Q: What sequence folds into this?
């Protein structure tokens, strides 16, 4: 029997889903710190020059990278890796 694209298990019991580990958590935490640093520096520069600036993109990138770091850390805790 041929397996379709959405097949997760074969009739023989073989799993067709490949689970790859995520990147190490420190990668995401470093990215989060970088985005947060750039956000803070750009906000200070804008304040110094009298511009109205709300760094929504930087805050969004920093928070997403931090959450991905937490998710990666929990994955490695659960699966005994790292």
A:
């Amino acid at each position: 029997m041929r397996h379709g694209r959405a097949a997760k298990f074969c009739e023989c019991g073989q799993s067709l889903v490949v689970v790859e580990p995520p990147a190490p958590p420190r990668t995401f935490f470093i990215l989060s710190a970088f985005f947060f640093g750039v956000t803070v520096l750009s906000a200070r520069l804008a304040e110094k020059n009298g511009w109205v600036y709300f760094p929504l993109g930087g805050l969004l990138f920093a928070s997403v990278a931090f959450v991905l770091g937490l998710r990666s850390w929990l994955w490695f805790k659960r699966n005994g890796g790292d």
About this structure: The radius of gyration is 21 Å. Residues 25-49 form the longest helix (25 residues).
